[in-house]
Specification:
By secondary structure, the protein is an alpha+beta fold. The protein is about 25% helix and about 35% strand. The strands form six sheets. It has an eight-stranded antiparallel β-sheet with strand order 11-10-16-7-8-15-12-13. The longest helix has 21 residues. The relative contact order is 0.08. The mean pLDDT is about 80.
Length: about 600
């Protein structure tokens, strides 16, 4: 155990942690690095240049004549995947904090760092990209000292691109990070921090051995679900899975036990022996908080069960996704899914398409409301389709959150304007250090689900972090805005919105849909309505054949007769014709600005 080090790399998005992981793998001769970002093996990660999944890999490193086993977990940097980071941190004793030499300490760096400090991890501060012409490592060192209170000589300067300073980091990992603490004689306790689905071997769980020893062929029990299995294969994680006879305390590895149903494996569960079980489960993770809810429906109704299976398999790999069944008038049966943010929602949709070949329709994201009727009964409404008749409603309550935004003083003005535009109330502001300030706001959750985070990032040039927790429900003046196509409501496009925003939103939605709905042989009226009152209208003009082209000369009544005939045909067509709304239109409504 003395020769094991478990650590993760945390950083803000784009500070070079995946490249640093590549260099470490290369210098410890774990693999031949053939292309960038070896651990980001998902197609999507390569395309977008972001890490979505945490990846665990084991390296061997020689230091002072002794051999050490280093278990590295590379983590995502985007706030939407912070749950992945919290799981990785729970499986480690130390963290390498990477800061970009040209950008300095950024928002996500701070929230990831606080997460690591809460778990008592040893932090190794590293300044990356020191070879860049725009690098300013001295100023960044001051920021890190302000933040961590560490000594200047503890900060390591490196360049993951050239490989300078990487060996110093590996030495620091061995010297500074404590070895895992545990008792090999105690009953077995393993913490599951991730799992994947393999169509040949069933579900593979990744775990860290906290106490005890696990052997291939042991009879094991999952503590929270109480299910028992045989450990068909246990092993360690290199680029591929490598079977081992046993894993001892402090090791990080995987277990294959032929589990077929995805509900039996929970992230944060404890694995123990059937014969000699542990007394209690390891205190695992908090549940993730879903911020955004949206309906996900299969395009073909008969794919409903396939979609359920795909979501369950995806949930194994992404524990922050939650879903419950729901149905809609226009779209049939589907699921109401909870996501951590809009990027998370986009990624889940892409992964369903690529990994499971499921084409889905996603409705406008929203939050849940409490609706009180005249008798004082309360019902929880998740989507606008479930709203009772406006005449029966006494009042509606919407969820509020307490948001804390960390930024520099240069951006206080624009951020306050943004929050006030979202019906926010300023609670207080505090100066943390130098020119950094933390602002607290009470905001309605419904206002921030769609584009708040994106806007916050753009007005603060990326230098603002956003964190929140729920702050109960408050009464609010909300109304249901319907979109009608040729007089028929499209329930996937209807939204609940505040009275003050309704007219503006209705007008913008109609204008946007006019560009997106393809022209038909007849006029399509796009209307926004509140109850029976139409508040905005756009018309998609019909595609017309020039029926009078064959008339040259002759009496005008011939032309009139042909046009009248065409008009009657169009009228008949409008009665039987229906309008297909492209998937683009559902997504475009989210990005109205």
């Amino acid at each position: 155990m003395k020769h094991i080090r478990n650590f993760c790399i945390i950083a803000h998005i784009d500070h070079g942690k995946s490249t640093l992981a590549d260099r470490m793998l290369e210098y410890t001769h774990t693999i031949q690095v053939t292309e960038g970002q070896m651990l980001d093996d998902m197609e999507l990660e390569r395309e977008r240049g972001i890490t979505i999944k945490s990846h665990a890999i084991q390296m061997e490193y020689e230091h002072g004549g002794e051999k050490f086993t280093l278990n590295l977990i590379d983590t995502p940097g985007h706030v939407d995947f912070s749950y992945e980071v919290s799981r990785s941190i729970a499986a480690c004793e130390g963290a390498v904090l990477v800061v970009d030499a040209s950008q300095g300490v950024q928002a996500q760096t701070i929230s990831n760092l606080y997460m690591a400090i809460e778990h008592d991890l040893e932090i190794i501060p590293v300044i990356n990209k020191c070879d860049m012409p725009s690098a300013n490592p001295d100023a960044v060192e001051d920021e890190i000292i302000d933040l961590l209170g560490c000594k200047r000589e503890e900060i390591i300067r490196c360049s993951a691109k050239t490989g300078e300073g990487v060996l110093d980091i590996l030495d620091a990992v061995v010297e500074r990070i404590p070895c895992p603490v545990g008792d090999e004689e105690a009953p077995l306790q393993c913490l599951i921090f991730d799992s994947v689905f393999n169509s040949f071997r069933g579900i593979i769980a990744y775990f860290k051995v906290v106490n005890g020893v696990i052997h291939t062929g042991d009879k094991v029990k999952f503590f929270n679900t109480g299910k028992e299995y045989d450990a068909d294969e246990v092993g360690i994680l290199k680029m591929d899975m490598i079977p081992r006879k046993e894993l001892r305390t402090g090791d990080v590895g995987y277990i294959i036990s032929g589990i077929k149903t995805s509900t039996e494996v929970k992230v944060g569960d404890t694995i123990t022996h059937t014969a000699r079980p542990c007394a209690e489960a390891i205190a695992g993770f908090e549940e993730s908080k879903s911020m955004v809810f949206a309906g996900v429906y299969p395009i073909e109704a008969e794919d409903y069960e396939d979609l359920r299976a795909s979501l369950e398999k995806l949930q194994l790999n992404d524990a922050s996704l939650t879903f419950t069944p729901e149905s809609s008038v226009a779209l049939g049966f589907g699921f109401r899914c909870g996501f951590l943010g809009l990027l998370h929602m986009e990624i889940v949709q892409e992964r369903l398409d690529r990994e499971f070949d499921m084409a889905v329709i996603t409705t406008v994201p929203n939050v849940s409301y409490n609706v009180y009727d005249k008798q004082g009964h309360m019902t929880e409404v998740h989507n606008p389709g479930g709203m009772p008749d406006p005449t029966l409603i006494d009042h509606i309550e919407e969820p509020y959150i307490r948001a804390s935004i960390i930024t520099t003083t240069d951006y206080i003005g624009p951020i306050m304007t943004l929050c006030l535009g979202k019906r926010g109330e300023l609670v207080k502001q505090e100066y943390i250090s130098g020119n950094r300030v933390e602002i607290y706001y009470n905001l309605p959750l419904g206002e921030i689900v769609i584009d708040f985070y994106d806007k916050l990032k753009s007005i603060s040039k990326g230098y603002a972090s956003f964190d929140y927790h729920a702050a109960g429900y408050r009464p609010s003046r909300l109304i249901k805005l319907d979109i009608l196509l040729n007089g028929e409501p499209v329930d996937a496009l209807s939204t609940l919105t505040h009275v003050d925003n309704a007219y503006e939103l209705g007008r913008r939605m109609c204008e946007k849909l006019k560009d997106l709905i393809p022209r038909q042989q007849f006029d399509i009226a796009i209307q926004a309505a509140i109850g029976g009152k139409i508040i905005a209208r756009e018309t998609v003009k019909q595609v017309r054949k020039d029926v009078t082209a064959k008339c040259y000369g002759g009496d005008v009544s011939r032309k009139r007769k042909l046009l009248e005939k065409q008009k009657r045909g169009k009228k008949r067509m409008k009665q039987i014709g229906n309008v297909e709304v492209p998937q683009k239109a559902f997504l475009a409504v989210l990005k109205l600005d």
